[in-house]
């Protein structure tokens, strides 16, 4: 087997993995602030997909403007969900699980009723392929991966340098201590949930042209995101990125040797291997 | 010596919370551990009971090394503790709390519980009786069927003590047993502690109320910034210049 | 009148409640076939009984504070084990049933032992990963053994049992209902007995404060693992019944979707009492069947019900009467 083939497989794996990292980052951000796992996260991804379908494919607005709009709209939907429901569930993992499940069903059913059950194809915004160093990658995949990386970098800068971003990290570390220092927990929680959902919405917008848009489209990325955050460690942002790269490379390489169904097992096997060594994930606390 | 700490240390990242602490707690005494806030008192308790691992040194109980054991194993050997923020099984009644704590002395196996044998029922009946008798001595018998989470503060404190005693421990470690109690209640707690000493138990306690500490303890160890700065009888401690400077200087000794 | 009585007795732990509850359950189970022999109702009722075995055993695990998302996998292990023992090894269903349950319990030791090193959301996600591995394993590996994506077919119904000179058969819906009813009543008796024993007392104490329990000498890990293994044994029994009553197995029968339903039944009913899952499973299954009429709106309404129930009754349906009574009592005491 040639080196080129291996590198090509890795590249294929990384391309989509970066988008799944976006979904995972949203999940892990919400977890770190509210201590809950949002099972309806994939439905916010789905919402981003439908926004992209209507604004970009139907009304013909510029793709990147559409993406920005999808991020904002889904982020706003996240803030509403937090204010109406999730703020009452801070730290109640079990109850939040049931509630987010309820929200998942509500959102999927609403999507079916308003948009129909059939797949809606979103035309590709970019065509053509790039060849370099004997590797082949489609322009679309390249744009998708690069956009995901830009969003990840933006999140990093926001959390590192902005005031609300620093407040979020303080709450994630110790909510009580942050509250004592005057951090507005309610505001941080609403904003954190909103940003988490916005990331999922952006991911949905990015993958809408790659896959079609459908009410159940959120299931796959959310499972990938779960694998990523278990590997990386819950609540850890660098962990999500590393977990995504690991999953992407394992799946990319795995696809050289086995069918797609068996590749899905690989991710979970990596999870179990990692957890045998580090029960809380690579970047999880002791 | 029931309890002996040899050069015990604990480091959190860059912070040396407890440094090179050696002390012994003599059997059937009441031993006080005092020091200003942040001196490392609660950390010492967590190190002794295995709640957090120590980074240097070792702890011995009745000649046996206990550092490195899990909290449950340490409890099995005869050390039980209360927590500073009084922790109870809040949904359970007072008696149920004591029964959980007493499980080491009288826990029936899974099989006999399922078979509901007469021996099992007899054991359960005796465990309840013992629990009620223990509650009687701490003036909690009337509250046996109350849900623990609804009790007033002083009764929660008393229940936490009852649970520690129910484990059958020889060494009881109490983190601020007087905190938040009225003068009358403190006096009651003091007499309970003295009675425990008469029964042969050893008590190690952290307490902020100096009057109570000096009144009840046989020996007092003073910690400051994770270091032991003095040890002796309450009278010696009250006269120790290092203690007065580091700690009692803030308020008059015995105030 | 003793005003403090109701408040002081924790829900579901009052004396006499276990026997009364079991009697009520048995009465309901016996009464149903007298009321109807309609095959639709018998099907739904049989499914409820099987799900009760699963949710009550899941509750045993949750009582130690851990939500095991791989519970359904042990049902799957029991199902595949029993099906293969009967079809490949050729032993009778009645021998395969206990063996399948023991296989599930034995596999629970390593899986539970690994997962229980962590708690809370970590545990939740790890057990979820385990369940997916088990499901994908049944789906993709040893296809000639497990049947792969097209499923394991041709599983015979439970064989007849000799009974005082005549044969008890298990082929009709009523007979299968009776079999599951018998399995459930034994299971429920064991689980209720366990709940009201010192084991149950200590197990629920762990949920309320695992560090406190540990410092009081409770080997927390051992209690959790015991609950895990006992729960998996019950799931294995349910799985064996499922295999021989449905006669076809697909890996998706033991996937995320049915697992999620079990969790919904259990948590909506209330995990604080052994009767919570019973209330949740019966009510939610009936509600689900009624909502079928709504077609597209079914999952919409179901979702709204879940959200509102959890916001209004965070401790589940069984905690609701006590909560309402307390509110009423407070209202009375405030009145002049």
Overall structural class of chain C, as computed from helix and strand content, comes to mainly alpha
Name the CATH class of the largest domain in chain B: Alpha Beta
When the domains of chain C are counted, the total is 2
Overall pLDDT of chain B = 87
Please describe what this structure looks like.
The complex is a heterotrimer of chains A (about 290), B (about 260) and C (about 325). Chain A is an all-alpha fold and about 290 residues long. Chain A is built from eleven helices and two strands. Chain A has a domain at about 20-215. Chain A has helices at about 5-35, 40-60, 65-85, 95-115, 140-160, 165-175, 175-180, 185-205, 220-230, 235-255, 260-275; strands spanning about 130, 135-140. In chain A, helix 1 crosses helix 6 (about 165-175) and helix 5 (about 140-160) crosses helix 6. Chain B folds into two domains: about 1-80 and about 170-250, P-loop containing nucleotide triphosphate hydrolases (Rossmann fold); about 90-170, no CATH class. Chain B is globular. The two termini of chain B are about 30 Å apart. Chain B is built from eleven helices and ten strands. Chain C folds into two domains: about 10-255, no CATH class; about 255-335, no CATH class. Chain C has helices at about 5-10, 15-35, 40-60, 70-90, 95-115, 120-140, 145, 175-195, 200-210, 210-215, 220-245, 255-270, 275-290, 300-310, 320-335, and strands at about 160-165, 165-170. Chain C has a two-stranded antiparallel sheet with strand order 1-2. In chain C, a hairpin with a 2-residue loop joins strand 1 and strand 2. In chain C, helix 3 (about 40-60) packs antiparallel against helix 13 (about 275-290), helix 5 (about 95-115) packs antiparallel against helix 11 and helix 9 (about 200-210) crosses helix 11. The longest helix of chain C has 27 residues, at about 220-245. Residues about 1-15 and about 330-335 of chain C have low confidence and may be disordered. The interface of A and C includes residues 108, 261 and 262 of A.
């Amino acid at each position: 087997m040639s080196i080129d083939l291996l590198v090509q497989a890795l590249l294929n794996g990384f391309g989509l993995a970066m988008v799944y990292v976006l979904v995972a980052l949203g999940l892990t951000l919400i977890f770190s602030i509210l201590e809950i796992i949002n099972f309806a996260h994939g439905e916010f991804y789905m919402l981003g997909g439908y926004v992209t379908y209507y604004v970009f494919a139907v009304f013909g607005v510029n793709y990147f403007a559409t993406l920005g709009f999808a991020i904002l709209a889904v982020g706003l939907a996240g803030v509403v969900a937090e204010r109406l429901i999730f703020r009452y569930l801070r730290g109640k993992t079990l109850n939040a699980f049931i509630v987010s499940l309820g929200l998942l069903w509500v959102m999927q059913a609403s999507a079916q009723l308003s948009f129909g059950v059939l797949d809606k194809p979103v035309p590709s915004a970019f065509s053509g392929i790039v060849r370099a160093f004997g590797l082949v990658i489609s322009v679309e995949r390249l744009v998708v991966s690069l956009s995901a990386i830009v969003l990840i970098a933006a999140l990093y800068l926001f959390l590192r340098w902005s005031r609300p971003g620093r407040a979020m990290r303080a709450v994630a570390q110790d909510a009580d201590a942050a509250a004592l220092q005057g951090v507005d927990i309610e505001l941080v929680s609403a904003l954190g949930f909103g940003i988490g959902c916005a990331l999922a919405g952006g991911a949905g917008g990015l993958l809408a042209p790659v896959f079609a848009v459908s009410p159940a489209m959120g299931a796959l990325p959310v499972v990938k995101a779960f694998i990523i955050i278990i590997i990386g460690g819950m609540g850890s942002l660098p962990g999500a990125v590393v977990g995504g790269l690991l999953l992407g490379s394992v799946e990319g390489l795995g696809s050289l040797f086995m069918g797609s169904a068996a590749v899905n097992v690989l991710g979970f096997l990596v999870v179990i291997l990692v957890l045998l060594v580090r029960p809380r994930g690579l970047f999880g606390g002791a | 010596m029931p309890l002996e700490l040899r050069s015990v240390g604990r480091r959190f990242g860059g912070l040396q919370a407890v440094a090179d602490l050696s002390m012994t707690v003599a059997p059937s005494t009441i031993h006080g551990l005092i020091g200003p806030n942040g001196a490392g008192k609660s950390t010492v308790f967590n190190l002794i009971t295995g709640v957090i691992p120590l980074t240097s040194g070792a702890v011995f109980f009745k000649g046996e090394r206990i550092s490195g054991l899990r909290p449950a194993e340490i409890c099995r050997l005869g050390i039980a503790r209360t927590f500073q923020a009084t922790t109870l099984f809040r949904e359970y009644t007072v008696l149920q709390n004591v029964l959980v704590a007493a499980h080491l002395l009288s826990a029936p196996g899974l099989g006999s519980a399922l078979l509901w044998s007469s021996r099992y029922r007899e054991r359960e009946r005796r465990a309840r009786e013992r629990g009620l008798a223990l509650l009687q001595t701490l003036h909690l018998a009337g509250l046996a069927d109350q849900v623990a989470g609804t009790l007033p503060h002083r009764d929660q404190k008393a229940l936490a003590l009852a649970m520690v005693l129910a484990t059958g421990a020889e060494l009881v470690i109490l983190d601020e047993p007087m905190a938040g109690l009225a003068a009358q209640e403190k006096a009651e707690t003091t007499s309970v502690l003295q009675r425990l000493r008469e029964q042969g138990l050893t008590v190690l306690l952290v307490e902020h109320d100096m009057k109570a500490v000096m009144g009840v303890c046989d020996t007092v160890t003073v910690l400051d910034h994770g270091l032991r700065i003095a040890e002796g009888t309450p009278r010696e401690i009250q006269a120790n210049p290092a203690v007065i400077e580091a700690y009692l200087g803030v308020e008059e000794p015995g105030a | 009148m003793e005003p403090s009585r109701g408040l002081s007795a924790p829900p579901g732990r009052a004396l006499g409640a276990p026997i009364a509850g079991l009697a009520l359950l048995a009465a309901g189970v016996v009464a149903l076939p007298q009321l109807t022999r309609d095959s639709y109702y018998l099907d739904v009722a049989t499914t409820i009984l099987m799900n009760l075995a699963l949710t009550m055993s899941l509750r045993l695990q949750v009582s130690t504070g851990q939500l095991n998302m791989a519970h359904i996998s042990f049902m799957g292990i029991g199902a595949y084990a029993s099906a293969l023992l009967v079809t490949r090894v050729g032993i009778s269903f009645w021998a395969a049933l206990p063996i399948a349950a023991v296989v599930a319990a034995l596999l629970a030791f390593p899986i539970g032992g690994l997962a229980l090193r962590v708690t809370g959301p970590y545990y939740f996600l790890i057990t979820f990963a385990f369940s997916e591995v088990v499901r994908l394993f049944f789906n993709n590996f040893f296809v000639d053994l497990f049947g792969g994506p097209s499923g394991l077919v041709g599983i015979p119904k439970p064989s007849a049992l000799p009974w005082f000179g005549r044969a008890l058969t298990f082929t009709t819906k009523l007979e299968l209902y009776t079999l599951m009813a018998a399995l459930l009543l034994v299971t429920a008796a064991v689980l209720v007995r366990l709940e009201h024993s010192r084991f149950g007392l200590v197990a629920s104490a762990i949920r309320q404060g695992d560090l406190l329990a540990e410092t009081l000498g409770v080997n927390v890990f051992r209690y959790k693992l015991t609950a895990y293994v006992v729960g998996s044994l019950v799931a294995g029994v349910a799985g064996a019944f499922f295999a021989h009553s449905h006669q076809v197995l697909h890996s998706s029968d033991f996937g995320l979707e049915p697992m999620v339903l079990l969790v919904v039944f259990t948590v909506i009913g209330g995990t604080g009492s052994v009767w919570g899952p019973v209330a949740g499973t019966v009510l939610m299954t009936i509600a689900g069947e009624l909502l079928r009429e709504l077609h597209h709106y079914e999952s919409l309404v179901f979702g709204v019900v879940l959200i509102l129930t959890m916001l209004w009754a965070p401790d589940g349906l069984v905690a609701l009467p006590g909560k309402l009574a307390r509110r009423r009592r407070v209202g009375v005491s405030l009145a002049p």
